[in-house]
Amino acid sequence: MFQPSMFDSHHMSMLDMSTHKSSESDMGRSRDDDFETKSGTETTDALSGDELDPSQPRPKRKRYHRHTQRQIQEMEAFFKECPHPDDKQRKELSRELGLEPLQVKFWFQNKRTQMKAQHERHENSILKNENDKLRAENNRYKEALSNATCPNCGGPAALGEMSFDEQHLRIENARLREEIDRISSIAAKYVGKPMSSSFSHLSSSQGPSRSLDLAVGSFGASQSGYVGEMYGSGDLLRSVSVPTDADKPLIVELAVAAMEELIRMAQAGDPLWVPAHDNSSSTHHDILNEDEYLRTFPRGIGPKPLGLKSEASRESALVIMNHVNLVEILMDVNQWSTVFCGIVSRAMTLDILSTGVAGNYNGALQVMSAEFQVPSPLVPTRENYFVRYCKQHTDGTWAVVDVSLDNLRSSSISRSRRRPSGCLIQELPNGYSKVVWVEHVEVDDRAVHNIYRPLVNSGLAFGAKRWVATLDRQCERLASSLANNIPAGDLCVITSAEGRKSMLKLAQRMVLSFCTGVGASTAHAWTTLSATGSDDVRVMTRKSMDDPGRPPGIVLSAATSFWLPVPPKRVFDFLRDENSRSEWDILSNGGLVQEMAHIANGRDPGNCVSLLRVNSANSSQSNMLILQESCTDSTGSYVIYAPVDIVAMNVVLSGGDPDYVALLPSGFAILPDGPPAGGAGGILDVGSGGSLLTVAFQILVDSVPTAKLSLGSVATVNNLIKCTVERIRAAVTCDQNP
Predict the structure, then answer these.
(1) Is there a contact between 75 and 98 (Cβ–Cβ < 8 Å)?
(2) Contact between 666 and 510 (Cβ < 8 Å)
(3) What span, in angstroms and rounded, lies between the C-alpha atoms of 421 and 85?
(4) 4/66 Cα distance (integer angstroms)
(5) Cross-strand partners of 400
(6) pTM of the predicted model, to two decimals?
(7) Could you give the angle at which helices 101-146 and 87-97 cross, rounded to 10 degrees?
(8) Per-residue 3-state assignment (H helix, E strand, C coil) for 549-587
(9) Per the count of CB atoms within 10 A, which of 59, 263, 497, 570 is most buried?
(10) Interior/surface letters 471-498, b for 16+ CB within 10 angstroms, e for the rest
């Protein structure tokens, strides 16, 4: 490497020693600047005195200086220890090597530039190899799909005859295509910055130890780390990345501003929140004044993107849980996903920036991703990438706020983002808490099916009222499961408090499994069997292996949603009543259904867990046990059930571990078709007081996980669900209009 030779005898002879000191200093400064601009790679030398012509300008020629082998070795060794030497180190090194300090400085500059270039070439080479590998893998999948043949006849494979693995190659193919595009875009603009690694593992640190038991088995969400693992990973949960160190100060600043906005949104009145005057509704609610909001909070996360519409709502309630446990539920992703399993289909903690102080969540800061759902395949889920911040204020009130981090994800366009949303929690006597919830989102809801549009527009599908109603119901359920005394109505075949708790734990796992699999999550591969209307049947297959909580084999899930001109409470009461079960349950074969055990877990009589026995009308068939949980609140209801083995259920009733009881939940989700309707005009159309009913079945079609899915199995399930729908529609509408 060539380096400048500094201040040699030729240069010294050019100096006029009789000039003033100021001239010398000016020349010295200009000479230093000259060395800086030349990056220490070259200098100039004058001609000798014999060759000078006073009448001609002095010609200059370039001259280079090569360091000795010893000088290079010494500086290489020093560079390994310290790539950025300070002035003192450079002077000491120059003295040892017989160089000028500026020569040493320029050598280190050049060396650092060289190392950076090598690092960039190496990183780009790695990215290119990974890109090529993914492209080759993608081509192999394409070829496998194009050459798929029926194993029986050798012809092209039809959907119903394709094996489970072949069917899911399509999903993997789409994922790989998106992964290639993402890596290609990163490689194209890569400039040497370290690329943030994609999230590949859950954070093992979840803050302080938790003691709240939510009655979920070890094969539920508490083991998987996020809800929905059994169905694979969706686009959002795969593509999000752990925030870089450069992003973290921005995240903290955004979280602090969001906390301030949430508090003002929760406490403010008119003109920010305007009371709604809707003659068609008997309920009172507030509407956010958008213009006033923009004036009050001009910064935030930026203007609303084109194509998105705003949804804002606020709701408050008293719940039977202390503030400590409420904060713990909200800040632990597993508990949060379990309590709100009807709303949160999947959730993941990507990074924990702060675990809080003093052994609690005060000051806790987490980067998360989540997918929010309505229990129907007809309503697209909403995926969000956000930061969650928890803080205890001076008056003792706790606040938990979410705000989207989409500005940090430049690679994708979000269809949904969360403006500051969350809740304020105020401690009350006797273990109660007051919760004020604010939901403020911007979303593209154009893909929502028409029969669900009034419900989504009313805010009952994703708004604050649904979050608060769900929390209130789950707090009642948890209080019931922790009760030591057994109410008189719970006796029957339950002989101990341990048996009661085990049965509730099993029922909670059943509900969680049902809610995870009934929605339109991007983790699901729904296939529509027909295209005749809104009540199309959608099916998907799932392979169950090595899971003691589910029977092994090929499981076929089927779901359909449709509108009924009947109030939701009427539909709920009909479906949960064991006396009317024979009117719609084809699998019970018309047998008498008897309730063997009953556990009330809420104020509403509809919130309960039951153990039913179906006495077969055919004496040659054995009796069947069914575990059922029904739950209801002002925003929706569920009736969920699963056949259970008699021997395994006896173990549960005696207080045994319920995690090894195999379950395949089926059931119903009943939602209002819009806001509560006033007047007595009757239910004539969607949005006038009717119900939106989702029917979902899970059936084991083959006990061998590697078996082929036959077209006959799909046809059988399709007929089963359509027949059930017709029976329900005939029964409830007949009673409604005698």
Answers:
(1) no
(2) no
(3) 49
(4) 8
(5) 390, 423
(6) 0.68
(7) 110
(8) CCCCEEEEEEEEEEEECCCHHHHHHHHHCHHHHHHCCHH
(9) 263
(10) bbbbbbbbebbeeeeeeeebeeebeeee
pLDDT digits (tens, 9 = 90+) for 525-566: 666 665 444 467 888 777 777 777 778 888 888 899 999 999
Enumerate helices (H) and strands (E) in the chain, giving the number of each: 18, 23
CA distance 659 to 245: 41
Contact (Cβ atoms closer than 8 angstroms) between residue 143 and residue 72: no
Residue, of 738 and 587, whose pLDDT is higher = 587
CA distance 314 to 312: 7
Contacts of 738 (CB under 8 A, 6+ apart): none
User: When comparing pLDDT for 51 and 199, which is higher?
Assistant: 51
pLDDT of residue 696: 92
Question: Comparing 512-521, 546-555, 600-609, which segment has the lowest mean pLDDT?
Answer: 546-555
Determine the Cα–Cα distance for residues 660 and 652; give it in Å rounded to an integer: 10
Q: What is the 3-state secondary structure (H, E, C) of 276-323?
A: CCCCCCCCCCEEECHHHHHHHCCCCCCCCCCCCEEEEEEEEEEECCCH
Query: pLDDT tens digit string along 98-111?
Result: 888 888 898 999 99
pLDDT of residue 12: 37
Asked whether the beta carbons of 442 and 417 are under 8 A apart, the reply is yes
Cα separation of 381 and 371, whole Å?
6
For the stretch 284-323, pLDDT in tens is: 678 898 889 988 888 777 788 888 899 999 999 999 999 9
Q: Which DSSP helix (H) or strand (E) runs through 384?
A: strand 382-392
CA-to-CA dists, residue 547 to 218, 495, 518, 553, angstroms: 11, 29, 20, 10
Phi/psi for 625 (5° steps) reads -105, 140
pLDDT: which is higher, 89 or 707 = 89
Rounded CA gap, 401 and 399, in Å? 7
> What single letter denotes the amino acid at residue 246?
A
Burial class (CB in 10 A: 0-12, 13-18, 19+), 286: middle
Give the integer Cα–Cα distance in Å for 51 and 613. 117
- Tell me the two tokens of residue 268: 């403010």
DSSP letter string, 583-636: GT-GGGTT-EEEEEEEEE-SSSTT-EEEEEEEE-SSTTSPPEEEEEEEEEETTE
Contact between residue 474 and residue 323 where contact means Cβ atoms under 8 Å apart = no
**Out of 51-60, 100-109, 146-155, 225-234, least confident range:** 225-234
Cα–Cα distance measured from residue 2 to residue 685, given in angstroms and rounded to the nearest whole number = 86
Q: Going by DSSP bridges, is the β-strand pair 416-418/553-564 parallel, antiparallel, or unpaired?
A: unpaired
How many residues belong to the chain?
A: 738
Q: Are 417 and 308 in contact (CB under 8 A)?
A: yes
CB 662 within 8 A of CB 265: no
Least confident of 103-112, 190-199, 212-221, 590-599: 190-199
H or E segment and range at residue 85: none
Q: Please classify residue 697 by burial: count the beta carbons closer than 10 Å to its beta carbon, then call 0-12 exposed, 13-18 middle and 19+ buried.
A: buried
* 16 vs 558: CA distance, rounded Å: 97
